[in-house]
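New here. Invent one.

***
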Amino acid sequence: MTALPARGSESTVEIRHFHLYCGLGGGAKGFNRGHARVGNTEAKFQCIGGIDSDPAAISDFSRAAGVKGTALDLFDRDQYTAFHGKEPPADWTEATPLEIKMAAGGERPHIIFLSAPCKGFSGLLCESKSRTDKYQALNGLTLRGMWLALEAWQDDPAEFIIFENVPRIANRGRPLLDQIVNLLRRYGYAVAETTHDCGEIGGLAQTRRRFLLVARHIEKVPPFLYEPPKRPLRGVGEILEKLPLPGDAAGGPMHRCPSLRWKTWVRLAFVEAGQDWRSLKRLTVQDGVLKDYGIVPDGYGHASTLGVRRWDEPAGVVADPRPDWPEYGQLGITPWAEPIGTVTSQRAPGQGKFSVADPRPAGNPKFNNCFRVVRYGDTCPCVNGGATPSAGGLCVADPRPAGVAANNEDRYQSQGHYGVVRWVDTSKAVTAAGQHDNGYGSVADPRAGHLPDYSSAPSLPGPDDSLVCRIIAEDETWHRPFTTLELAALQSLIDPEDLTPLHGTSDTAWRERIGNAVPPNSAAAIAGVMGETLLLAMAGETFMLSNSPIWVQPLAIALSIDDRQLATEIEGLS
């Protein structure tokens, strides 16, 4: 443990962090941005290396972390064979603790961060498939990686070890977690398990609930570890409006709108914003077509002044280029935020723009408001003797997601086909397999966009024709998939001022690495509280008062003792 300088002098202490299963470097980038200060001493976070089996991810990591990463397979021989279905090549060898140490440049980290592969534990993988030898081998990397890290620095252990994964690991991976906890305790660590929302601690525009196991070396770090402060979630529009529109060359190769089948575009257009594919059930289909809607190219019916209609069809609408004269507009309604036209001697609603779209709810009746829905933040009208929705304001717009009390993983697993997110709402978790048709991977974009004009086409595309198009939905927005660049922005992996693409040219590979990444803003928040605790320990402090909750509960005690010790103390008190 490094000792702090004498009181009264400004100083900077380097806190080194190392990453196993580092991916494209989101966690390392965030830790480098961490900020901590105790008295006159400030922490400077420095990444000393990272390991991943994917060379493309290592290329991204080296740029994001500012230090060269190491491409290294951490499987043992049995795990390699089970996962790949064949024996390893002749020149393949199992990774050793010495190689882990070399990947850190021979330096000792204060913090080790592990974000092990989570596919085998994820709720997106069916239970039966998760039990196969392939995914059990992948799950086994959690234990093997921890053992390699502990052995690499057994003579001078890291002060903190953080293990991050999907929440379902607490159930599907319970036997492995128990082995990891016992292993850490044998190496002198107090251990506690918790979950957190990356969106809340990183101020993101998405909800991303994750499992977190934090291990504190008892001898080296006596102080508590406090929770990072929670921040309000943001709407996806706050992030996306800083980027150019999809297809704009300024966004680079990762900002292209995907080419989808025509029938997929139509489905997305009819999904209600904030909903998923289930909202399509409200549509009436007759003989394979929509009964209540028709789709025609933009401009159809008034693209030409000489348009010819069948005798039994209604006439079209003429797009009149002449200016609207506000003084004489019949039945004119003025928007609330716009000025009225000329006030004339006429006074009836049918004689000009003498009506207004008034948003104020003045004069609502108290009892006879059939089918009224009360907003969650409003008061309820008078409770009367009626017991049905049509008897008054007896319905509520309930914002709470169903099942949260019973299952806190809802926000991570809310994967609905063709889910469309509203512009002002937060995104669901960005997953490694996220596409337009297997989750909430689309957004109701109110911006018009600049796409090819298909209005001159003689007919609509066929159902299976692939194309990039814009269909304005009923809510006057463009329901479209998130681009790869936008998913990276929602993860806080890129800044609007730096749109450098990731390594490679494959959108599929990019999206997998983005979905697996730890959001840098969330990692920075974690680094800050850990850095503060380390500075206190270096100063010889063993206790600090804070308004923030101690990270891992039950009771108001966390990493000063581990879960097993806590249970013993509770039993003694009872």
Summary: The two ends are 37 Å apart (CA to CA). DSSP finds 17 helices and 19 strands in the chain.
